[in-house]
């Protein structure tokens, strides 16, 4: 067996951690560099977790998915009057960014997980990559994996011509403890992933683990994702937070301006099924995320690669963002092993596979978004809405 490369991973979120763990399992010496000063506990957002996301925790760390996710057995579409338009039995694992992060970080350990480490630039001289940090530190590695997310500076450096395309809508998000719901609403929602399709809009509501990881029904959080169109002309004022700062990717909990919050809550009462309106209007600090499409023509550049949202950022309708980030890591490890540690050979083979995956997911999620938010042809129970990374249900 050839010697394994020394690796640095920039970005210590779900994509970066999964890649780091897999490459370390191969025998690589791996350091993770994360810009945040504190462990990334603050993000309370729910995520549906597909197999690729929970594969590492389950297969390599031996942590059952039920320990870090809520399980729902029904998919339901409600009408505005609260009646059921469509329902089917389907198992989903629904978790939160925090819950998955905690398991992965515990698996990786903190020794080579470096917080407060913001990468400012890197130079690939063909034989090695030198990484420069904003505080003046440097590191030299054989392979640099950039998992620095949707606003990736690595992507902007490597592919300055690639821009993010605003999809025309945002997602309202937020959570409320299940214990704060009326018994009727809890009963209606706690076993299912619940949708409502509206005119040029749709909402998903589902349970996720509590902030301390609680997975028992009644002790979890109920999470929302409500897609609403915001015209490009209104975009800047909509994304102005309480401090007057214009945001581009998200407005965190507590910082959304009062005008937009009040309008969203009033619309919730007018448009949503009563059970869903109760959840949405009960959320104390809703936040929002902007939906973008980002497509890249390349993912490998000599000894540097971009993975996860740093490469393709896809609309969330397949619930496959973290699964794609994780899969980029699984296939990278597979190709490094197949190339016996030869980084250039491995990245060339890896890029072909991951470009194909990114393109197909982008196309699928763009189509779902178009049908829901633009064409208005999105229907309750549409089989294309089944979550999946490679295809609906897969
Ligand atoms: C509305 C919405 C709903 C979603 N729902 C789901 C869902 O149900 N299921 C799902 O799987 N996915 C979902 N996603 C997508 C998912 O959130 C992303 O795909 C996923 O977080 C990408 O992971 P990542 O590791 O690539 O990047 P990120 O999680 O964005 O992490 C990037 C990390 O890099 C760090 N960083 C950035 N720059 C630097 C630097 N210069 N130096 C050091 N560190 C740096 C950041 O601090 C951050 O920790 C959703 C997204 C949205 C917007």
What is the string of SSEs from the N terminus onward? EHEEHEEHEEEEEHEHEEEHEHHEEEHH
Q: Largest sheet, if any?
A: 9 strands, mixed
Kindly report the average pLDDT value.
96
CATH superfamily of the largest domain: FAD/NAD(P)-binding domain
Return residue spans where pLDDT drops below 50 for at least 5 consecutive residues.
Answer: none
Helix count equals 10
Q: How far apart lie the N and C ends? A: 34 Å
Q: Assign the CATH class of the largest domain.
A: Alpha Beta
How many domains, in number, for the residues?
Answer: 2
CATH architecture of the largest domain: 3-Layer(bba) Sandwich
What's the short version?
The chain has helices spanning 14-25, 51-60, 97-108, 153-158, 183-189, 235-238, 258-271, 274-282, 321-338, 343-375, and strands spanning 6-10, 29-33, 46-49, 70-78, 84-96, 113-114, 119-124, 129-133, 138-141, 143-146, 165-177, 192-198, 201-208, 221-229, 250-251, 287-293, 300-301, 304-306.
């Amino acid at each position: 067996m050839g010697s394994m490369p020394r690796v640095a991973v920039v970005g210590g979120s779900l994509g970066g951690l999964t890649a780091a763990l897999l490459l370390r399992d191969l025998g690589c010496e791996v350091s993770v560099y994360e810009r945040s000063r504190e462990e990334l506990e603050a993000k309370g957002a729910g995520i549906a977790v597909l197999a690729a996301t929970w594969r590492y925790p389950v297969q390599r760390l031996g942590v059952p998915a039920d320990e870090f996710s809520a399980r729902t057995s029904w998919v339901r579409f409600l009408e505005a009057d609260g009646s059921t338009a469509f329902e089917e039995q389907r198992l989903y694992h629904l978790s939160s960014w925090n819950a998955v992060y905690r398991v992965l970080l515990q698996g990786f350990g903190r020794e080579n997980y470096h917080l407060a480490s913001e990468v400012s630039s890197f130079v690939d001289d063909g034989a090695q990559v030198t990484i420069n940090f904003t505080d003046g530190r440097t590191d030299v590695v054989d392979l640099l994996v950039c998992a620095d997310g949707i606003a990736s500076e690595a992507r902007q450096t490597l592919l300055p011509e690639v821009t993010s395309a605003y999809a025309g809508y945002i997602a309202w998000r937020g959570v409320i403890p299940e214990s704060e719901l009326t018994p009727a609403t809890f009963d209606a929602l706690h076993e299912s992933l619940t949708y409502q399709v509206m005119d040029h809009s749709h909402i998903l509501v589902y349970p996720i683990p509590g902030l301390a990881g609680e997975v028992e029904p009644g002790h979890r959080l109920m999470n929302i994702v409500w897609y609403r169109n915001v015209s490009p002309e209104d975009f800047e004022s909509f994304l102005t937070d309480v401090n007057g700062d214009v945001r581009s990717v998200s407005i965190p909990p507590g910082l959304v301006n009062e005008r937009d919050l009040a309008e969203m809550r009033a619309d919730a009462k007018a448009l949503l099924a009563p059970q869903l309106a109760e959840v949405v209007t009960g959320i104390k600090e809703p936040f929002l995320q902007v939906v973008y499409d980002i497509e890249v023509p390349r993912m490998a550049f000599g000894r540097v690669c971009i993975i996860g949202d740093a490469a393709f950022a896809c609309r969330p309708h397949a619930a496959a963002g973290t699964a794609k980030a994780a899969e980029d890591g699984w296939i990278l490890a597979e190709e490094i092993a197949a190339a016996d540690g030869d980084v250039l050979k491995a990245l060339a083979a890896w890029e072909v596979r991951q470009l194909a995956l990114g393109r197909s997911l982008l196309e699928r999620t763009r189509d779902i978004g178009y049908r829901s938010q633009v064409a208005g042809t999105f229907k309750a129970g549409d089989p294309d809405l089944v979550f999946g990374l490679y295809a609906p249900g897969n």
